[in-house]
Amino acid sequence: MNGTQINCKDELVKEFGGSKEFINSVSQALQGETDCPTNLSNSLEAAYQVAECDYESNTNRGEKVGWLYGSKSKDVLIGLMIHKRVLLSLIEPTGLSRLLLIRRWAGINDPTKKMGHRPT
């Protein structure tokens, strides 16, 4: 292994955590490889490890896309975070008028329904 590969592996560990199986999978995906794992028990063990609550601690992934741990109302915070991300993804590329149109089609806060008008 040369210095570049070691440095790359260190960066992957810092970004995604210490699971060797997960790091190998990420590395293969980044290189465009789509090989299926040959040992299913290793994959299951890696899935359990990555799913643990403290796996994202001290990683870039945990800071960027991780959930809010250590809060008694983390479910509420997570729900609000997801809701915010969805709304921002709707507003940013399409604009506020598109969001209002989507809400109108969904029947959410449609001002025409309150006035008794019907869309034509």
From TrEMBL:
Any GO CC annotation of this UniProt entry: endomembrane system
Compartment annotation: Endomembrane system
UniProt keyword annotations, A-Z: Cell wall biogenesis/degradation, Glycosyltransferase, Membrane, Transferase, Transmembrane, Transmembrane helix
Principal location: membrane
GO function terms (MF aspect): cellulose synthase (UDP-forming) activity
Domain of life: Eukaryota
GO terms under biological process: cell wall organization; cellulose biosynthetic process
Cited InterPro entries: Cellulose_synth (IPR005150)
Name of the protein: Uncharacterized protein
Organism: Acer saccharum (Sugar maple)
